[in-house]
Amino acid sequence: MSNTVHVAVVDKAHQHFDSATLHVLWNDFSDQEGTVSLPSYVEVHADRLRTRFAEFVEAVSRRDVGGQSVSQLLLIRDDFSYWWMTLFAATRWDKSSHISDALKLIALSEVIDQHVPDQASIGIKNGHTATAIARLLRSRSISVTNFVFNDSSIKRSYGSGRALLSLVKYALTHFRVKPVHASSQPDTLIVDHFVRFDEQLARSGVYQSQYWQPLQQLFGASKRKILWLHHFVPGTRSLLSAQRTMDSMQSPGERSHAQFESRLSVNQLFRVLQDLRKLRKAEKQLSMMPSLFVEEHSGIDLSDLFVDQWIDSLRGSTATRHLIMLNQMEDVFASLPKQSLGLFLCENQPWEAALCHAWSAHDHGKLVAVVHAPIRYWDFRYLSLGRALGQIQGLPTTKPLPSLVAVNSPISVDFLNNSGCPGSRVVEVESLMFNHLMQPRQASESQQTTLLVVGDFFVDQNVNLISLLAGALKIQPSPLNIVFKPHPMNHTIPDLTSLPHAKISNELLGDILPTVHTAVTCNGSTAALECFARGVNTVSVLDPEILNSSPLRSVDGASFVSSVSQLAKAITQNSSRTIPTTPLVILDPSLPRWNGLIQ
Predict the structure, then answer these.
(1) DSSP for residue 209
(2) pLDDT tens, position by position, 457-497
(3) Helix-strand-coil percent breakdown of the chain, rounded to 5?
(4) Which of 285, 292, 566, 577 yields a CA-CA distance of 20 to 30 A from 90?
């Protein structure tokens, strides 16, 4: 008679089930004996698992529902499937997407196949994740003897009334946000986020954006009339404040500024309601499919991870917002004169599908998706984009796409090529945000007295980073001056009291770096690349709850840590690093590539 194999799936290594013969760690990099770390397993098998998840997402779009595919069922225009605006299809990279959990669940199925347990215990805090794990184990006829999770983490509210309430709220909050007017007769469209610009200059009528500033001279030389559409970023200012700032920057006959989302017209209101009814009808048919989110290769049911965002996309507040964007984009591009060129910051977000669809439907000119930073290995948004660019075009359910994707890094070129994107759809351009990397570090090593803590977009990432650094400084105190630089799109300053004499700086990163000895960043920070490229001792802190989304993931010489002791050692390293000989971004202040694209 064989011995019983009892596997315990737990968040952290300190959680111990006495009867377990193997502990599988969900959110821990520990490699102690008798454990398997799923975050580490995913990294070891990264290429295979990444492709497998991308294929799973595409397979969901092709699922048969009464003789139609899911993407066909979501055709809300003759040539546009709302599938491309769902949160699931957008493959976002934040925790709420549950992509990291899905990959771990697939990895867990492989570990189970290797060890063949007959009993299991579950000690996972997140209820959605714990339920998905239990479903997997029971589907393999494994008895779950202990099941511990946090009930409060499961919050489901599927009432269709949320969509209507969201529509009313939007109508009220955006009532004073002016829509786009074509009176200036623009010929060029640029879409960006309303951050990273000089506020003082803006109030005096000048828009100097970190995203685009080097191009201003080229725009002037080509005598383009530009319509700027800005995405409002909550937490940075109010909608009315943003509107007033844009009003002050208007220049009739030369440039105009408007918010991407503006007040609803009566016509738009009725069209959004009609579209919501279409989605509700489709959602009822889709709800009859219990196997919608089953990964075919393994038979794993991932519904517990994705059903909430799926329903929110079809009949929740997200559905309302996305449909408003779609209808407003259709009106904007119907009203504008023919645009010869369009540029937008590319992150493969749902609004981009609406933009590309409306642009193409009204026969405008060249539309360029601009990737402003090197693409991260685990960023499924761009993997989805690259795979779509390599697929057959022209079908009603085809993803609306830009004419070209502009990238500013060899890392991005390789990423898109490996995803199957045709080289003819990718154009290399100079970096517009990283020109400071061409400046030599003028400070001597003795003047490099700063330990820079680079803030992240996500609040919880900052909390984790500071907690780990505080622990490291207790082990290895540092004589360096600690400076915290907030992320420009996150104005929530974390509690810094655990970091001795820490100061906050809102200076540009390029102005801070000359005196930086060591930079500590989260593992999704683009700033890590900037620090590394300037020869700074750069330490990226891994988070076991999310994927390693650092642009430095595959770069030789990059430093990654996952524990307090590793970080304590890393921050004491000599700062005299060799600046990479192979450029990580394309730099040329004369912008010949951009000039060719614009002219």
Answers:
(1) B
(2) 888 899 999 999 999 999 988 888 999 999 888 878 899 99
(3) 40, 20, 40
(4) 285
